[in-house]
Amino acid sequence: MPLTLKKLHPSFGAQLLNTDLRAIKPGAIGEFVDLMDEHAVCAVPHEVPLTNEQHINFSKLLGPMERSAKKIAGTGKRLPYNEIIDQSNLGPQGTIYKNGDRRLAFKRANRLWHTDMSFYQVRATYSILSAHIVPPEGGNTELIDMRAVYHDLPDAMKKRLDDMSAEHCYWHSRTLGGGPSPSIEEKAGRPPAIHPLVIENRRTLRKSLYLASHIRSIQGMEKNQGAKLLKELNEFATQKQYILSYKWSVGDVLIWDNLATMHRATPFPDQTYVRDMRRTTCREFEI
After folding, report:
1. Dihedral of CA 159/160/164/166: which sign?
2. CA dihedral sign of residues 57, 115, 198, 9
3. Distances from the Cα of 226 to the Cαs of 9, 119, 215, in angstroms?
4. pLDDT value at position 1?
5. How open is the CA angle 227-231-232, to the nearest 5 degrees?
6. Which is nearest to 266 in space by CA: 132, 129, 143?
7. How far apart are CA 17 and CA 30, in angstroms?
8. What is the number of other CB atoms lying within 10 angstroms of the CB of residue 247?
9. According to the model, what pLDDT value does residue 172 have?
10. 41-44 and 14-17: which strand pairing?
């Protein structure tokens, strides 16, 4: 059955209608990838959330999966699956993290604009986020079409960015977002990675600006100059016309292409309400 959809934003994003990700077979995944190349973000509602196993099984169709990500010190495991990243405000015992807990502080850093796992040398491709419990207020996910951003940059800026690369560091964004300084062991577990500021989809040849709050510096630029350029690029990218704000319902699955978008979580009363979101992440094939 061909996929049917409705647009979520003038330049990107689509909601798939009458689609059950549990029913998509390996032979049909090519059509889904084509749709992601066009829209970069797809929302797929379900009456009940995917089980963790169903979530993982669908994600495997989209490429190699991230497994056993390095944990923040003191973080237990609420969900016993190496492929699932727990994006909830719940601790290992299923209770809400208290204010002041360093683990919650790190999670709140996801409210900064970022690209998943850009701090790894082998980059993330698709993120697949599944809603199990949604708070009654706040907690939207906002996304930016970084292809449209690059397209609209002045030609002089595009030329300036040619061959520029940036250093992405997980701990930079965590502390920038209000989290505590990492331990020596934590730093060693997630070293920085270098990536170009402009990347190209190998299938469509469409270019994107590759930004994230994880960026600590621009290669070959003095610190203040690099920070000034990053500020200029981020201010351009986060203009209202590029942003899609997605309001969640239980059972929704939101899939985005990290090589074509940037995103952030929006605040909600995280000491009052549970927000149980579970993410899998696919990665590039290692060369």
Report:
1. negative
2. positive
3. 32, 18, 10
4. 53
5. 120
6. 143
7. 18
8. 12
9. 85
10. parallel
CB atoms within 10 A of CB 240: 5
Residue in this structure with the two tokens 């993982």, named with its chain if needed = 56
* DSSP for residue 124: E
Burial pattern 74-108, b for ≥16 Cβ within 10 A else e, equals: ebeebeeeebbbbbbbbbeeeebbeeeebbbbbbb
Please say whether the beta carbons of 37 and 201 come within 8 A: yes
Whole-angstrom distance, CA of residue 88 vs CA of residue 71: 14
Give the Cβ contact number of residue 48 at 10 Å.
8
Cβ within 8 Å of residue 41, ≥6 positions away: 8, 12, 13, 14, 143, 244, 246, 254, 255, 256, 257, 261
Here the tokens at position 172 are: 């930079």
Residue type, 135: P
Look up residue 114 and give its two tokens: 């970022």
The predicted model scores a pTM of 0.92
- Residue 166 tokens read as 């940036």
Q: Along the chain (287 residues), what's the average pLDDT of each consecutive run of 10 residues?
A: 84 95 93 96 98 97 83 63 94 93 87 94 97 98 98 98 95 72 73 95 96 95 96 98 98 98 97 97 82
In this structure, are residues 133 and 274 in contact, taking their beta carbons and an 8 Å threshold?
yes
